[in-house]
Model the fold of this input.
Amino acid sequence: MGVETLTMISATPSPFARMNRIALHEKGIPFELQNEVPWDSTTATRNYNPLEKLPILLFPDSENQEPVYDSAHIQNFIVTKYADKSPKLVTGDINLDLKARQLLTLSEGVLDAFVLIFWESKRPENKQSAEWLARQQRKIDGGLAAFESLCQSRQPKSSEYIINDTYTIADIAIACATAQIDFGSMRPGWREKYPELAKWYTKMEERDTFKKTYPVMFEVKDSVV
Ligand SMILES: N[C@@H](CCC(=O)N[C@@H](CS)C(=O)NCC(=O)O)C(=O)O
Done:
């Protein structure tokens, strides 16, 4: 069965959209990018997602398929709806796939903390909450420590992937979360602190689908805070 061209509402630096773009590229599902700045007043995100956030996946047959939003949900949608397309990005084992989804949620949470820190840091210094920032920073440290531990305990040891020897949505999610910390220079020296994660991540970023989706910064025109 052929697949019609989908539309992915994305932002050039968005790690959330990046996960979905990588999954679509890996599976060879054709899509057009509609790049947006979701915080600008002109954004189309609110036409499709009451939360006014991207990524959002749109379908040519909009009468029968509503927009799909939230990166983790889109990822699950892609692996379920296009299960016949390789790579499957899931293992087929219920428990392992539940673990992959848990790691997707963990990565999404790390990235949510990243975005909150980004915006809190943009407020005038006397309006920023040091406690709030510290709370979000803890989530990033917790996530990175968990990623390092997963990389250290990989089975088999020679595997390129987090869950056994299968390439899954967990690999994409953890690599995209790690990339954003690196891209945003959030944790200088992280490679030394988390050496197994650094080794694993470097290899993941060599994939074509990762190379062509690496984040690119954008400018936010409107004041949103
Ligand atoms: N947890 C959401 C987060 C998505 C998110 O924060 N997207 C940002 C762009 S990278 C956004 O659209 N923010 C607009 C807003 O928060 O109003 C997901 O995984 O889809």
Q: What stands out?
A: The pocket of glutathione is lined by residues 11, 14, 16, 38-39, 52-55, 70-72, 108, 112, 115 (CB under 6 Å). The chain has a mean pLDDT of 95. The chain has two domains: 6-81, 94-211. The longest strand covers residues 6-10.
